[in-house]
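Bug #77: duplicate submission created two jobs. Keeping one. Sequence:
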Amino acid sequence: YPSEFLLQKITEENQIPLHIHVSLSLQYVAGLKGNALVEFFHNNIAEVENEELRHLMWSSVLFYKSPDVEVMACVLLSTKAIYFLLDDTLIRAHEHQTDFWIQESSDCENSSFHLSCCFVLKLNDLQSVNVGLFDQYFRITGHSADHIVACLTRDSYNTHAFIQQLMAVLSLLARTPSPEPVDKDFYSEFGNKNTGKMDNYELIHSSRVKFIYPNEEEIGDLAFLVAEKMDGLSNLQSLNILLYVLAFQVNHVEGSVSNRNLLQPKTLILTSSDLFLFDEDYISYPLPEFAKEPPKKDKYQLADGRRIRDLDRVLMGYQTYPQALTFVFDDVQNQDLMQNLTLDHFGE
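Kept job's structure:
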């Protein structure tokens, strides 16, 4: 340790997504290669001497205690814990919302010394991992509200790679075996005897950590919700969700220092007749066991919806991934697509 393959792999993975702006401290981390990165991990992050760095990933993260603050993080998986190196500037900006961050006053605010916060989730405290629809994100759950983190990878490859590495690392943990028999019958494990439908696709790892994947009913619920917004429940049978992707809506801010674009996280859902943007709660559902009341917001909240037949053209940018798409709709007569068209439009 570390092998040449590992050094090459973490060097390739150590790249901040192009569309994300991060603090100088995280830019420094992203500039490290190979051995320098491993040494940085052991000197500044690792909590015990004999732990090994196994995987590195850059991802947006959400915390259960502050569901509205999406923070960019460098996620480091070792044989002992998962470390989230966080953008300190963003945390300070949202200090009033993130009451569980303990901020210590430092004397190096005006110097060239840059700090990052590091959130640690020990593998021994890990209870379950919920994988989101189409592997666009996953949620890691520990033993309390402080230990629930969602990683919005927006990329099925990154999600899959992290889950595979996490399973491999968990296999090294020495935990007492669970009392129930290992060889459970598939149908009694997952099946509901009344309906014959699968309740949940749940994989219990040898370390007793649950890996929970979405089942077909979740897509059905989403299709029902979309049909409701379309006022076309009669078409529910023929409604197909063609695409579900976590994206950003770009709001261009004129007059700011750099005329920069503000990226607002949205869930884009495409059906055969409509294009929808939803504000989705990625962190609160499914409800953790200790939750005493449901979240204040629904899982999906409609932000915008347009008919495909009103789509005039799609403009594509020339930059590399992630690609920017501009949808131009020709729907001037009906600006508010969600309004009820049976209303009397000739009244006041």
